[in-house]
Amino acid sequence: MDKGETTYREFLPHPGLSEYIKCFWHTYTAPGINNEYDILPDGYFDMIFSMKNYRVTDISMTGIWDQMITVALQGGTGMFGVRFKPAALTGLLKINVSEMLNRTADIDLKEFSLETSLITDSLSGGNLNILIDHLNRRFLSQLSNSGDSRIKAFFELVDRSSGTEPVESICREIGLSTRQVCRKVTGLLGIGAKEYSGITRFRENLASIAEGKGYDGFYDQSHLIKNFKKYTGMTPGQLNPANNVRILQYSRKDLL
Question: What is the pLDDT averaged over residues 218-243?
Answer without folding.
Answer: 76
